[in-house]
Design brief:
Distance between the termini: 30 Å
Strand order of the largest sheet: 7-4-6-5-9-8
Structural class: alpha/beta
Helix content: 10-25%
């Protein structure tokens, strides 16, 4: 199978993301819903706002009288949480009002207190101030009508969706079940965190990083035991991992003598959708699916299991996750097709071209109100975890193109 370009590989993942099976639905308490995907829309239980709402402290008046410069008599006050009991506001009168309070019947605008001149119980517009009908008032139902959809299904729940659900009196939400993602780190050199590594060994950081990335993408991570560099160990871990919705294997996908991941996956009749991408880091990344088996769990929405074989170097693992794995997890979470989080920023320095590879390199994005800028982080290759920790994004550098300070480039957020 030929190695794909970065764009071809991403399109392949997104194509499959658009065809994943529907997820089971579960009821979840509101504050446990953050990061999950709505299975049903949130509907307004009443008009929003449920009354004409003042957006400024000031005076509820007839706009035409205010604009004419007439002196108006202040006949009372209404605060947020109160209702004006004085009947319709008559001509020549004004009601002092606070932000968020219901606008009294008869008044059609709110004059800001900063634009008013008061003498005793009389108030008038400061010199040159005009007022249009409806100004500084949100009409009843302007934001949403009772029964209308305020948050559509397939939305990922953030603080904004929590606030809207709370406004609608919802204590629980209907959400898609999080996809179950099995994580297998491979390699004889790996030890777990509770072990003391020998000089030739390293701690199993990749599976912890992947678990965090999976959770942030909306999945439920499960770390399986380390698979050692032999076919038997790999076969056992893949046999376990195929029972999950997605299987992530870290390491063992290069061309080394003991890189057996692709060979063992082939024993399970795996369909390989790509086996390499022209990118740095992450070139050996593998994507495919294992077909249905007779022993798959009944609760799985689909008997097939997608898998990624990710390079073992930590930055390669994280880059390929953000580029390819996260969009598939979001789709498996019920959120539909979504691209990686790409933005545009101005390059802060010259960068020489590298032929034949799209480079996705650790970088630091500095954002201000005028123009975000991005600068590459100095690193010592894709095993440099310290450099990755200093970065807050990845600069996406196109193939065979010299770049200069001031050029606008694509940045991958993380």
């Amino acid at each position: 199978m030929p190695t794909l370009t970065f764009e071809q590989a991403l399109l392949t993942v997104l194509e499959h993301a658009g065809n994943v099976s529907a997820r089971p639905i579960e009821t979840v308490p509101l504050l446990e819903s953050v990061g999950r995907t709505l299975a049903e829309p949130i509907r307004a239980d009443r008009d929003q706002p449920p009354f004409p709402r003042a957006t400024r402290d000031g005076f509820a008046v007839h706009a035409a009288e205010w604009s004419s410069g007439a002196s108006l008599r202040v006949i009372g006050q209404v605060r947020a949480g109160e209702v004006w009991r004085g009947g319709e506001v008559p001509p020549g009168a004004a009601v002092e009002i606070m932000t968020g309070a219901p606008v009294p019947l008869g008044a059609d605008a709110v004059a800001m207190v900063e634009h008013a001149t008061t003498i005793g119980d009389q108030v008038r517009a400061s010199e040159g101030r005009q007022l249009a009908p409806g100004e500084n008032v949100v009409a009843r139902g302007a934001e949403a009508r009772a029964g209308s959809v305020v948050v559509p299904a397939a939305s990922v729940v953030t603080a904004a969706e929590i606030a809207e659900a709370a406004t609608c009196g919802m204590t629980h939400l209907q959400l898609y079940r999080r996809p179950l993602v099995a994580i297998v780190a491979t390699g004889d050199e790996l030890v777990e965190l509770d072990q003391s590594p020998a000089d030739h060994q390293i701690r199993n950081s990749n599976s912890y990083a992947l678990a965090a990335l999976v959770a942030c993408a909306g999945g439920y991570p499960g770390r399986l035991e380390i698979a050692r560099d032999n076919r038997e160990d790999l076969r056992e871990r893949i046999l376990q991992g195929r029972m999950w919705d997605l299987l992530l294997l870290s390491g063992g996908v290069s061309a080394g003598k003991y890189d057996f991941v692709e060979e063992v996956l082939a024993e399970f009749n795996a369909e390989f959708l790509f086996t390499g991408v022209r990118m740095q880091p992450g070139k050996p990344v593998v994507f495919g699916r294992i077909p249905a088996s007779q022993d798959h769990p009944l609760e799985k929405p689909s008997p097939e299991c997608y898998f990624f074989g990710l390079p073992g170097n930590p930055i390669s693992t994280e880059v390929t996750f953000h580029c390819f794995v996260a969009p598939l997890i979001r789709a498996l979470s019920g959120a539909g097709i979504s691209q990686p989080r790409f933005v545009q920023a101005t390059l802060a320095e010259d960068v020489a071209a590298k032929s034949g590879l799209t480079r996705v390199l650790p970088a630091h994005l500095t954002a201000d109100l005028q123009r975000p800028t991005v600068r590459l982080i100095q690193w010592h290759g894709s095993g440099d975890l310290a450099a990755n920790a200093r970065a807050n994004c990845y600069a996406v550098l196109p193939e065979a193109q010299d770049l200069h300070a001031g050029d606008v480039i694509t940045v991958l957020l993380r």
